[in-house]
Amino acid sequence: MARANRKRPQSFRRQNEQSASSQHGWKTSTIPKPQLVQSVKEYGRMLRHLEGQPWLALDTESDSLYRYTPRVCLIQLSAPAATSASTTPVNPMQVLDYLIDPLQLHDLSALGTILANDTTEVILHAADNDILTLQRDFNIRISQLFDTQLAARILGRQGVGLAQILQEEFNVVSDKRMQRTNWGQRPLTPQQMIYAQTDTHYLPTLRARQFDHLQTASRWNEAQDAFRMLETIAYSPPAPRTFWQMKQIRALAKEDLSILQTLWRWRERLAKRSDRPPFKILGENTLVALAQKRPLTMTALRNIPGLNARQIERFGGELLTAIRQGAQQPIPQRPLPMGRTEQALSSRERKCYEVLRRWRTETASARRVDPDIVFSNDTLLQITARQPASLAALQEIPAIGQWKAQTYGPALLELLTNSSDI
Length: 422
Prior knowledge:
Blueprint: E1 12-14, E2 35-37, H1 40-50, E3 55-62, E4 72-80, E5 95-100, H2 109-115, E6 121-124, H3 127-138, E7 145-147, H4 148-154, H5 162-170, E8 172-174, H6 190-201, H7 203-216, H8 220-231, H9 257-274, H10 284-293, H11 298-301, H12 309-327, H13 347-367, H14 371-374, H15 377-386, H16 391-395, H17 402-419
Parallel strand pairs: 2-5, 3-6, 6-7
Antiparallel strand pairs: 1-8, 3-4, 4-5
Helix pairs in contact: 4-7, 9-10, 9-12, 13-15, 13-17
């Protein structure tokens, strides 16, 4: 699963297709091959099998490492092997896998109808990116979700990447080479198909185990509330990329910013025109070095780290022009921070925020979960800014669902009341 932002691509291979798992007693080599869905006929046959199923497992693969504007190139679906299934299976042998090729099938609205049916639970791992890309590319929305990564975090598990979980639970090992494979190429290789299949094949069984653990730990209601919150996220076009997003920008002298901005804009135009990721044109460290050293000749370009002879031959003239133009531009003004940040808090608000953060750390430690499972920093900032005086007012904050308001609300309201005297 090739991922943007915080979810990295996940693709897996069988560690030894001839070996049996001593823990669970099945051979990975006996897993049926996935069914590739590329034609309208194959798509229709799959839809008939998916219709009315109580659960499906879902994942996507994108080509973000190979295009300026990424696209979903593969959709993996796992479904009950039997049409009479009622619950998620305890054995992966009871799962049938599909690999849907959206580059060949241009109308996925019927699949979207199935995924939006609230009688069908859709199981994903680290669902947020898949939710957004399915909305972006196909206007597909999911209405009944179970996120196995989020469930693992609510259970307090350390190491919640799918690769680690599959290895520990099912004796399946990741092949890291597949993290950088081009999912937009056709035909898919047998290795790609196996790896893609594994991303969803074990999720139903993992879900069944996690459900039992959540029930035992009295955290099922918490998980359900978190899943419902995930279902509400909606795709919106990203803001235009700017050079201010570069991590290295803090190290630049003020007088170099106009050159860096001009180089950045040149790279963006070229990347968009050639439909390539900007980093495959020139790396950010190279842009910074160009802005700082300001080479004025082709010979001087050879001394720039990360700039090879082929790039100099292709882009040298354009780079020199951009550097000259950038040097003549006014120094750009740093944009104002978007939204509420810790730096924007007043002295009294900052003290209140620190009180809430200490409470969150203690609460998370007692529950043996990461702090953001209790509340994210952004949610604490919103609580600080709004100063809710009731559970109803607390629940009006978008990231706080009913479970968190009822569970954490009384303690939070008491803290807010006490902190008002600070």
